[in-house]
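Quick one - inputs below.
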Amino acid sequence: MRMGEGVEWAAHACVLLSALPDGTGLPAAAIAAYHDVPPAYLAKHMQALARAGIVTSARGAAGGYRLARPPQEISLMQIADAVDGSEPAFRCTEIRQRGPCGAKPEECTKTCGIAAAFWAAERAYRRQLEGVSLAAIVASLTGRPDPGKFARVKAWLEQNANG
Amino acid sequence: MRMGEGVEWAAHACVLLSALPDGTGLPAAAIAAYHDVPPAYLAKHMQALARAGIVTSARGAAGGYRLARPPQEISLMQIADAVDGSEPAFRCTEIRQRGPCGAKPEECTKTCGIAAAFWAAERAYRRQLEGVSLAAIVASLTGRPDPGKFARVKAWLEQNANG
DNA sequence: GCTGTTATACTCGGATAGAAGATGTCCGAGTCTTAACGG
DNA sequence: CCGTTAAGACTCGGACATCTTCTATCCGAGTATAACAGC
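Output:
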């Protein structure tokens, strides 16, 4: 079971956007340059975030991406769903209804016990990620005292932001 | 994030093996016929279960697969790990160390907050699945009163088991 | 009739093709800026 | 000097290749069975 690499990129991109000055936008190319990842591919994932309503996009010369909501209202689960898809990892193909001893459809009023167990685990997974907001991630990063680094990031943002 | 289809097959195969009479083995072809899935492909996943020590294999005319441990000591997590691999779904590529404002390695004593959050969610997922034993799955199936079906399965097993 | 041997049938195990999804890239559609131009 | 307009540059958005992983299959290695010949 592997999660797409773009989820990591999108999460870091959202962290960066959370430090963006109000009223400005950051182009996908700038986000890619900041993280040193392929610009076109990151752009693809930014589109996914925009479709999900997590970021808003502005076209044109002074365009770019910005967060659509305050970081407190954005969870890692929403980011992962937007980029990697929200369908369950475990797919039940109703094996119990197949084969020589297969159960008839009318016998299957309750979901298969195996699928139920996996889906319960996925709910625990989702509940955990829903409880982690972007703001909490940012707080864990800036918590450690390193004013020089923080100032460098701020300067880089002001140099590359549009608007 | 998608889990391999073989996990479902392997889980159902283990459920079937748990009903196998003591001292007998069930060939992979018979398991595949019971579930109506491609025999050669299921055999591949049975090999994975054997490598993980969940089932034991016996070659030869009276060979086949059987559970290596009582069903109480086999969890869905072990089956999923054996078939789908046990590496974490989220892969941290240390993006924070890349790019113009990248952190230096000596600054990264603590794991990245994003990776830590995802891995914590995966731990919740694993803890949930580790708590579901094969015996519990079997109990949830046989709990519903359907003696006829149970007898049919039993008869099919005795007809197809070796040993 | 009993025993040792050999042939056989049946099983698992790993090496080998094909398909699907993830990864990576490109060019067109749309929009804001900016500068030139006319009033 | 100011308003209008048109060109230009920059951005996102979706369509197009490439590549790894998952899916599916086949044939060889190994073993217990069973037949068979010899004693």
